[in-house]
Design goal:
By secondary structure, the chain is of the alpha/beta class. The protein has 8 helices and 10 strands. Strands 6-5-4-7-8-10-9 form a 7-stranded mixed beta sheet, with helices on both faces. Strands 1-2-3 form a 3-stranded antiparallel beta sheet, with no helix packed on it.
């Protein structure tokens, strides 16, 4: 039986370059990751900026885990702008990891670790809990089924520290999209907020976890996370405002918080 590390079991992506951009593809029709050459650490796609919305709820995470590397957009942004955070990335496709230099992903250091492996298994077995878990593990066929099962979402919930948060990128056109949302609600005691990516429309970012469950309104103005410069924080402004509006609507419509489920 082959292991997740066997390169022959994984589709080899390709890189498309223009004068100003670099993109990671599994097929010419779908962009997996996108980088502006002049700003390699910037978040060029709106959904990635929306995933950084966890900062409204957890502005100083000590431990960030990511399932799916792609071109490393989120890993690079967090590594540069959240200097107090440790970042662990798990990517199942070794061919994707092999392209990290092309996308200017920094080398592993005391704060950044990128490993090859099965992300669902890693979340289940990780000995330490996370403050933030980012799931963006699409491959050539779309969303892997293993990253959308009830067990996976249960494991995600169990992996978070008190006040922790999950952010997951979902394709709204997936035939089981509503089922995936229902599974998330079951795993996170209904503390689930879906926010549509207004730039592309086909995707949404779902935030879930105890850090979301407070019925308090988010402040209208939030200071940048510790160590993040103003320009980086300002680059997130549109998506954070969109998320703040969605959270307020969700907060007002949500019934009183129920007691956690007991086994």
């Amino acid at each position: 039986m082959s292991s997740p590390a066997d390169p022959d079991d994984h589709v080899r992506p390709f890189v498309h370059n223009t004068r100003h951009t670099r993109a990671l593809h599994f097929s010419i029709h779908e962009v997996q990751s996108f980088m502006r050459v002049a700003e390699p650490d910037a978040l060029a796609l709106a959904y990635t900026r929306l995933m950084m919305g966890f900062l409204l709820f957890h502005p100083q995470p000590a431990r960030i885990a990511m399932l799916g590397l792609g071109g490393g957009s989120l890993a690079k942004f967090c590594h540069r702008h959240l200097p107090a955070s440790g970042i662990e990335v798990v990517e199942i496709n070794p061919h994707v990891i092999a392209l990290r230099d092309e996308f200017e992903v920094p080398p592993d250091d005391a704060r950044l670790s990128i490993t090859q492996g099965d992300g669902a298994r890693w979340v289940r077995t990780s000995p330490e809990a996370f403050d933030v878990l980012l799931v963006d593990g699409y491959d050539y066929s779309g969303l892997p089924s293993v990253l959308a099962t009830q067990r996976f979402y249960d494991d995600c919930s169990a992996s978070l520290r008190p006040g922790g948060l999950l952010a997951v990128n979902l394709f709204r056109g997936h035939p089981q999209h509503e089922l995936h949302l229902d599974r998330l609600r079951r795993s996170f005691n209904d503390a689930v907020l879906e926010v549509e990516d207004e730039e592309r429309g086909a995707n949404s970012v779902v935030l879930a976890g105890p850090g979301l469950a407070s019925r308090r309104a988010l402040p209208a103005s939030v200071e940048p996370a510790q160590g993040m410069d103003t320009s980086a924080w300002d680059s997130l402004a549109t998506e954070l405002a969109h998320l703040r509006t969605a959270h307020e609507r969700w907060r007002l419509q949500r019934p009183p918080v129920r007691a956690p489920r007991r086994a």
